[in-house]
């Protein structure tokens, strides 16, 4: 049986309370596997050291920042951060957001990985991780998937119980580590599309491209310049533009437009917001330009698209 105690936190501490010591608070994450399953509409977690963790949020949005990187975590995705990454997070919402994070202690992480890599039937053979090597997973937003999210859902369900079964949860912790490594194997296959001779260079460029992409996905409703996202990727602007277009098939500007329009389309399908409200909430400042772009990409005008969708809903 793998080592590592399971601790549960079902409420956020008062980080502003007199005498609160974040270093003391973080000790439990160094020594134990910790599941945070707490709800809040307003909480701010100051920058701090983190263990290997998988971040989820349901019924709303939780925001994470690591250096210049910025991530929006919601019902559609999850975020993986490595041990040693310093980050801050906050929730600011009119209704409570359910924050759910799986945290791995260093001891459990290493024991689980070494156990996986040491088995003859390991799915991770020739993957680049060596026995007793500290792995670095790719830190990026991931859409919920069958590989990782199925285990996350089981952990979510178990942690919601009054008396969670720690034996089953510990087994699922092990399963989640294996799933994360298998997911990383897929990511490394994607890295092969990066035009670089050295494997280390491909890995680094891939990570930097996703720093930029995740920033766009998280901040598309704000003003984003090419220089800004190139800076987040720590790349020369001209080189970043060429690399982004070669890898994703469109320019960063085109990706911003695509991301905004897809969000606008989703808002028309799921809310009662007017065209003007959707226009400004997705980052556009001019309604006329927004309407033209929407018609060009989807055919009908925003108002007609909204009416068509509402009619479909009523008919069903």
Shape: globular
Query: How much of the sequence is in beta strands?
Result: 15-25%
Class by SSE composition:
alpha+beta
C-alpha Rg (nearest Å)? 21 Å
| Strand/helix succession | EHEEEEEEHEHHHHHHHHH
Number of strand segments? 8
Number of helices: 11
Poorly predicted parts:
none
Kindly report how far apart the N and C termini lie: 51 Å
Mean pLDDT over all positions: 90
Helical proportion, percent range:
40-55%
Largest sheet: 8 strands, mixed
Outline the structure in words.
With 316 residues, the protein is α+β, with helices and mostly antiparallel strands. The protein is 49% helix and 21% strand. The chain has eleven helices and eight strands. It has helices spanning 22-31, 106-117, 146-159, 166-191, 199-219, 226-232, 237-248, 252-270, 275-281, 287-298, 302-315, and strands at residues 6-9, 33-49, 52-58, 62-66, 69-73, 77-81, 86-104, 141-143. Strands 1, 2, 3, 4, 5, 6, 7 and 8 form an eight-stranded mixed beta sheet that branches.
Characteristics:
alpha+beta, 21% strand, 11 helices, single chain, globular, 316 residues
Walk me through the topology.
Layout: E1 6-9, H1 22-31, E2 33-49, E3 52-58, E4 62-66, E5 69-73, E6 77-81, E7 86-104, H2 106-117, E8 141-143, H3 146-159, H4 166-191, H5 199-219, H6 226-232, H7 237-248, H8 252-270, H9 275-281, H10 287-298, H11 302-315
Parallel strand pairs: 1-2
Antiparallel strand pairs: 2-7, 3-6, 3-7, 4-5, 4-7, 6-8
């Amino acid at each position: 049986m793998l080592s590592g105690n399971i601790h549960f936190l079902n409420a956020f501490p008062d980080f502003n309370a007199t005498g609160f010591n974040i270093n003391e608070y973080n000790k439990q994450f160094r020594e134990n596997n910790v599941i945070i399953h707490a709800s809040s509409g307003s909480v701010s977690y100051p920058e701090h050291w983190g263990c290997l963790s998988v971040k989820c949020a349901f019924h709303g949005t939780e925001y994470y920042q690591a250096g210049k990187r910025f991530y929006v975590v919601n019902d559609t995705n999850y975020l993986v951060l490595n041990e040693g990454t310093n980050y801050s997070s906050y929730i600011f919402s009119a209704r409570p957001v359910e924050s759910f994070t799986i945290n791995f202690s260093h001891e459990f992480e290493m024991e689980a990985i070494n156990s996986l890599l040491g088995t003859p039937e390991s799915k991770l053979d020739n993957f680049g991780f060596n026995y007793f090597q500290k792995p670095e997973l790719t830190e990026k937003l991931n859409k919920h998937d069958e590989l990782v999210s199925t285990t996350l859902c089981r952990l979510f369900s178990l942690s919601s119980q009054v008396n969670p079964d720690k034996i089953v949860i510990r087994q699922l912790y092990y399963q989640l580590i294996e799933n994360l490594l298998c997911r990383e194997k897929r990511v490394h296959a994607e890295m092969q599309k990066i035009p670089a001779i050295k494997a280390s260079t491909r890995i680094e460029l891939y990570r930097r491209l996703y720093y930029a992409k995740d920033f766009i996905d998280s901040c598309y409703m704000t003003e984003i310049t090419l220089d800004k996202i190139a800076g987040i990727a720590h790349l020369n602007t001209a080189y970043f533009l060429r690399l982004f277009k070669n890898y994703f098939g469109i320019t960063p500007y085109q990706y911003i437009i695509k991301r905004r329009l897809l969000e606008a389309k989703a808002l028309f399908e799921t809310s009662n917001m007017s065209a003007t409200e959707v226009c400004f909430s997705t980052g556009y400042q001019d309604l006329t330009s927004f309407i033209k772009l929407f018609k060009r990409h989807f055919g009908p005008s925003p108002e007609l698209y909204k009416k068509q969708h509402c009619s479909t809903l009523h008919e069903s």
